[in-house]
Amino acid sequence: xxxxxxxxxxxxxxxxxxxxxDEVENALPEISEIKTGICQVFIQHTSASLxxxxxxxxxxRVDFEMFFNKTVRENDPDYRHDYEGSDDMPAHLKSALxxxxxxxxxxxxxxxxxxxxxxxxxxxRNYGGSRQLVIxxxxx
Length: 140
Description:
Number of helices: 3
Oligomer: single chain
Protein name: YjbQ family protein
Number of domains: 1
InterPro entries: UPF0047_YjbQ-like, YjbQ-like_sf
Order of helices and strands: EEHEEHHEEEE
Organism: Pedobacter petrophilus
Largest sheet: 5 strands, antiparallel
Low-confidence stretches: none
Structural class: alpha+beta
Mean pLDDT: 97
Number of strands: 8
Radius of gyration: 16 Å
Family: Belongs to the UPF0047 family.
């Protein structure tokens, strides 16, 4: 059994859904040493999230942003947690809906993502800043 772990600091991105697959793969090249295993990518934040989805058509990411903005609206007068801005509480809710980690099989030294799949950083704040990930891979 081999276990590898690496922290990754992502540059600040605008609000929206961003493909980060290449950055994750480049941060942990030791994945190539694992024939069969698992890779977990965890985000250390409560106002951004991770998911896996379409990696080819950018309109999918635009539609994700539209859907989540319609589903979890800003400026709701019932929010009590509002001192960090109108995008803060909605960002926490969006993050809770999408989740803070993704788990991907490793097959023959590569992430076993489907042809049209990519890892998304889901930035829910207007000015979220850089984001920190922990990438852990294990297997034989």
